[in-house]
Amino acid sequence: MRDRIFLDTNILVYALLDEGHKQKTAFELLQSGCVISTQVLNEFTQVARKKAKLEWQEITDLSNAIQTLTEIIPLMRETHNLGLEIAKQYGYGFYDSLIIATAIESQCNLLISEDMQHGQRIEMLVISNPF
What we know:
The chain is α/β, with parallel strands linked by helices. It has helices at residues 9-17, 23-30, 38-50, 56-69, 77-90, 94-105, and strands at 5-7, 35-37, 71-73, 110-112, 121-122, 125-128.
């Protein structure tokens, strides 16, 4: 069975806004048909505007490319509630917990993130740091 992979925001940032050694790995992951949430897309937009200082048209073009390459899952009330439970049980910040919750709800078995505990299993989801 092929992994169903959920990408954290930092992977999109490395793939599309970074020129360092992490870019190639992140870009390959992005092109592999992964899942993200509207939260991840929104966080990417914020980083592109505030940190990378991109113009709105550049951000729109990147956002359109991301939307073409990924399946995007919306956040629902149930996601919020599961995020609260994950934050309480595992000690992650709330926004990271929302990403974990969305990955679980979208039946992903692998969450790619540099910012979370590598190898940790939460339900059927395993967190992996590709770097």
